[in-house]
Amino acid sequence: MKKRYYPKEVECPFCHQKVKPILKLNRAKSDFYGVRYTGLDKKYWLVCPNCKAVVGAI
Length: 58
Description:
Number of strands: 5
Distance between the termini: 21 Å
Largest sheet: 3 strands, antiparallel
Strand content: 25-35%
Order of helices and strands: EEEEE
Helix content: under 10%
């Protein structure tokens, strides 16, 4: 599977480097307990490729 990267550079607050974060699909569905998941609430995590920390979400 090919990795997708966020087009803008972001400074990681943990390793303090300017990186292009990896887009990773947020599959946490704990907020949807007892509710049918529609797929419209997809969010992506921005993951630092160096330290693997979550930098943000879109």
